[in-house]
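Handout, section B. The chain below has 270 residues.
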Amino acid sequence: VSSLLQYAIARKYIDENVAKDFRKGVLGGVKKRLPKQTHISKDKIEDWVVSLVRLSPPHPAFKDFKGPDAYWEEPSISETTRDYVLFLLVTGKRKSEASNLKWKDIDFDVKTITIQKTKSGKIDILPMTNLLWHMLKYRFESKTKHKEYVFPNKYGSGPIVDIRRTLEKINTKAGIGHTTAHDLRRTFATMTRELGMTNQDTAILLNHAKRDVTEGYIIVSREIKRSNLDKVTELTLGYIEDWMKVYWYGGKEELYEGPDIPIKEPEYYV
């Protein structure tokens, strides 16, 4: 309305824009909405993860498996959506940062994931945890692998876009309220606080923009970052992490199968 009246003033139809100061003048000041702070709480995360597991498909080798570890029910979530949701949960990345990941950004030799397009404008180098190595290795070797995107949409025409229906299924089965993709990022941040990590540690994992120029001179090794990511994954998933490696990604029962921790690796600026 204000824009329309401003146009009318320019055309000399009226002399005053009565809607210009509507918020603070007419209503006496409309309070701004507080930033959304919803997340999956620590006491609900186990139910949420169990719901994800029950709705997700197992590795093809376990399609007809009927043992006591067959936690899945009637899968209604695709492998790609399952992995995308799990990636968001255990990395704290924004949905667009994860969806735009390309295979050229995955380095299996140095065990890193490079996120090129970030909100902060900084390239984000993410060390692979053991779970992420299993996930990405499985997706890379899959016969249905997309030639460009790690998490393609169901039509194969580009990156995955909308997971609202998937999250609604998980939430409903878990018996918790509405959850968005960004709530998974807030959940990740909450887990870092539960672990007693410093604000600086959390900011590094979330790749937040620098608020203090001195932060640009802080050097962090990939191994410290990987260790912190592992701690969040363990707290978030618990015992089901090792189950996922086997029954989702075809890994072996051994706990430490996967990328070896480098004896020495270069440090880099954050």
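Note. The longest strand covers residues 112-115. Compare this with the example in section A.
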